[in-house]
Amino acid sequence: MSRSLVKAIQILDCFLERPVMTINELAEIAQMPKTTVFRLAGGLEEAGLLIKDRKSSHDVTYRMSLKLLEYGKAVSEQLEYSKVARSHMNKLNEEIDELVHLTIMEGYKAVYVETVNSSKPVRLVVKVGARAPLYAGSAPKMLLTGLSDEEIEEYLDHVEFKQFTPNTLIQKEKIKEEIEKIRERGYSISYSEHYQATIGMSYPIYDHDGKMVAAIGVSIPYIDHSKEREEFILSKLEHTVKDIWSELGYRGVISRNFS
């Protein structure tokens, strides 16, 4: 990590001790030269992380901006839905005994942040922290549908497609068609698109503002798949996601069509 970045973070840490400071006070607490503190404070101000209040040429103070509150709110909300989802994921896992996972978008990647594994001798395993492209797999595709059409177009124009299996969608038009199908029916399904011989099913998780913040899904081995099993899991998954929505304050409606 850049030394300047580390020092800038140290400057921000100083405001946890004292909310408003002059450059002299900040330099004393940070134990850095005034010239260094002045330069870093200027950069943090330009980035919108510090606010400079000037009463006169000799009376200038700095304080943290509300932009930091936005970062804190985003982290808090992420922890909130992850915590809420965990108990419901455990319950779903007990009912169906299949791999249940929670996935979020980070940059233009899907990241698995919570998993509950099956107890079956033959089972699927996904490690927490594993990443996947947004065009392959039920949860990644679900997250992709949460972007605007313009953002999706930009993503598809710049992503480097990889054929993971014969079923991986790598044609832009087919992916856009798939996105419309997912939006229409309210859930996403994948037949061996990212991993061979696996079936995945996912629903979106929305916060109280109706923003998609994650996808909750179930993945099963292909050998355990049947149309009846698929519909049973989708039904259980639908009930689970509705319960999560309710706890997060979202009152939307799922439009489900298994045809």
Give the distance, in angstroms, between the N- and C-terminal Cα atoms: 51 Å
Strand content: 15-25%
Major beta sheet, specifics?
A: 6 strands, antiparallel
Average pLDDT for all residues:
90
Shape: elongated
* Class of secondary structure makeup: alpha+beta
Lateral strand order in the biggest sheet: 6-5-4-9-8-7
Could you give the order of the helices and strands?
Answer: HEHHEEHEEEHHHEEEH
Structure description:
With 259 residues, the chain is an alpha+beta fold. 45% of the residues lie in helices and 22% in strands. It is built from eight helices and nine strands. It has helices at 3-14, 23-30, 34-46, 67-96, 138-145, 149-158, 172-185, 227-248, and strands at 20-21, 50-56, 59-64, 99-106, 109-116, 131-133, 188-191, 198-206, 212-221. The strands form two sheets. Strands 6-5-4-9-8-7 form a six-stranded antiparallel beta sheet, sandwiched between helices. A three-stranded antiparallel beta sheet has the order 1-3-2. The radius of gyration is 23 Å and the shape is elongated. 29% of the residues are buried. The model has no long low-confidence stretch (mean pLDDT 90).
Note the topology.
Elements: H1 3-14, E1 20-21, H2 23-30, H3 34-46, E2 50-56, E3 59-64, H4 67-96, E4 99-106, E5 109-116, E6 131-133, H5 138-145, H6 149-158, H7 172-185, E7 188-191, E8 198-206, E9 212-221, H8 227-248
Antiparallel strand pairs: 1-3, 2-3, 4-5, 4-9, 5-6, 7-8, 8-9
What attributes does this structure have?
single chain; 259 residues; alpha+beta; six-stranded antiparallel beta sheet; three-stranded antiparallel beta sheet; elongated
